[in-house]
Amino acid sequence: MVRRPRVAFSVRSRLIVAIAVLVGAALLAAGVAMWVVESRRIDQSIDAAIAQEFAEFRAATAADAGMGADAQLESFLARTLPDDGEIVWMYPTTGGPKYIGDSDRNLLDSPRFSALVEDLRVKGGLRTFDAAGARYRVGVLPVQEGDRTAALVVSRDRTQAQEQLNDLLITYALVGLLALVVVVAASSWLAGRLLRPLTLLRDTARDISAGSLDERLEVTGHDDLTDLQITFNAMLDRLEAAFATQRRMLDDAGHELRTPLTVLRGHLEVMAPDDPADVEETRALLLDEIDRMSRLVDELLVLAKARRPDFIRLEPVDLPTLGDGVAARCRALADRDWRTDLSAQGEALLDGQRVTQALLQLADNAARHTQEGDLITIGSKSSPTSVEFWVSDTGPGVPPELREEIFDRFTTTSSHDGFGLGLSIVSAIAEAHGGRVILDDSPAGSGAVFRLRLPREEDR
Fold first, then answer.
1. Where is the HAMP domain (predicted)?
2. Are 298 and 337 contained in the same domain?
3. N or C: which end of the chain has fewer CB within 10 A?
4. pLDDT digits (tens, 9 = 90+) for 64-121
């Protein structure tokens, strides 16, 4: 017993996990990008505000050019109204610092802040300063007075802006998580709908493995999976037809071979081994039966191969040459008045050997149903889209009660001494070419006309 491998992670689950990972990664990348961009924007906004304070100081000192550095800083602090979270400091040439703005003990009590100002007092610049868990942006503008240097210092607390950004990121994370849940739920539903044809395909394949070929997929939609459904159903049709052909061949072979085998056994049982004449007669009869069985097996094999893709091999065939070759071979079948009406011209995409086989079968069928000297005509004609061959005779024709089933296997007339497979082979060859074989409507006793009508090009 063949055991199927245990499916630990279905395709649907893998798709959902892959979608969740991709969406989660995209949301995370967007959140990180937003955090980086907003953090830079906060710093740029703070730096712009500090630069604005420095610009206003320069403008004020231009009007107070005669004043000393400390006086200029005192005057500027007196006229300045700091923003929220902003402190404007003056570090005079002598004495301690003064400031205007909200008091911030993190800076007032930090020796590191004073050291930072002293470090930038000569050259100036912007620095980020951390104190007691808070982050500040500090700008220092040197103010020169002779060989002494004062400084205008502006500090801005960026912690509040960062907290707002953090709150925004938390909100984004919650919304992103909710969106991820919605995406996963939607993708689960959508994956189930999209993969439903594959589920049906799996279930149908299991039913087939259990021995049922009657199951077919319900074709829905207009996508690649729909094409897969159609292809799978077509494959099932071919499999069912192949199995039906196989069963029919076995049934036919068993039915038809049983009689000659019974005949062989019966004659062998009653044969007198000591009688040379009886032995010779039995030998001739057995060889004849063996020849009949060989012919039956050959014809059944042809019908069994008719469903195979390589049953015919299409190639350009010259129609006049094909017709002349068939007519030449037919004259050796029997002593009849053989005539031709071959008007087909040009080339057609056919299997010349199979078409010849079909026409010879029709000619042999006509020869068996006519007498010496009767007229049999081999004809052909063509059009831009099709080519037609026919064989007509002046025999008794096909009985009306057999016209509907004449192409079925083992259907014979009372005067037919064959197996009734010849016309079935002709029909199989016609169908393999995408054409058909037709029996003309003719009055009883006026002969029969069989037409082999085939497409001219590979439009099959």
1. 192-244
2. no
3. N
4. 666 788 888 888 888 888 888 889 999 998 888 889 888 888 888 888 888 999 899 8
The three-class DSSP label of residue 390 is strand
Q: Which residue has the tokens 């992103």?
A: 176
CB 367 within 8 A of CB 376: yes
Contact 406, 418 (CB under 8 A): no
Q: Which residue has the higher pLDDT, 230 or 112?
A: 112
Flag whether pLDDT at 413 surpasses 90: no
Residue 396: pLDDT over 80: yes
Write the burial class of residue 257 (CB in 10 Å: 0-12 exposed, 13-18 middle, 19+ buried): middle
Helix ranges (H only) for 154-223 are 159-194, 196-209
Cα distance between residue 208 and residue 340, in whole Å: 52
Q: What's 81's domain CATH number?
A: 3.30.450
In a domain, 339, yes or no: yes
Strand duo 386-393 + 449-455: pairing: antiparallel
d(CA 205, CA 74): 92
Statement to judge: residues 61 and 19 lie in one domain:
yes
Helix (H, G, I), strand (E, B) or coil at 144: strand
Helix and strand counts by DSSP (H, E) for the chain:
11, 12
Regarding whether 268 and 335 lie in a shared domain, the answer is no
The verdict on 133 and 271 lying in the same domain is no
How is 424-448 classified by DSSP, letter by letter? Answer: HHHHHHHHHTT-EEEEPP--TTS--
Domain of residue 278 covers 244-305
Q: Are 456 and 348 in contact (CB under 8 A)?
A: yes
What pTM was estimated for this model as a whole? 0.47
320 plus 451 within the same structural domain: yes
Specify the number of domains making up the chain.
3
DSSP labels, 175-188: HHHHHHHHHHHHHH
pLDDT at 378: 93
Higher pLDDT pick, 200 / 409: 200
Q: What is residue 305's three-state secondary structure?
A: helix
DSSP readout, 49-110?
Answer: HHHHHHHHHHHHHHHTTTS-HHHHHHHHHHH--PPTTEEEEEE-SSS--EEEES--HHHHT-
Question: How many other C-beta atoms lie within 10 A of the C-beta of residue 310?
Answer: 6
Beta-carbon count within 10 A of 242 CB: 14
Averaged pLDDT for residues 391-398: 88
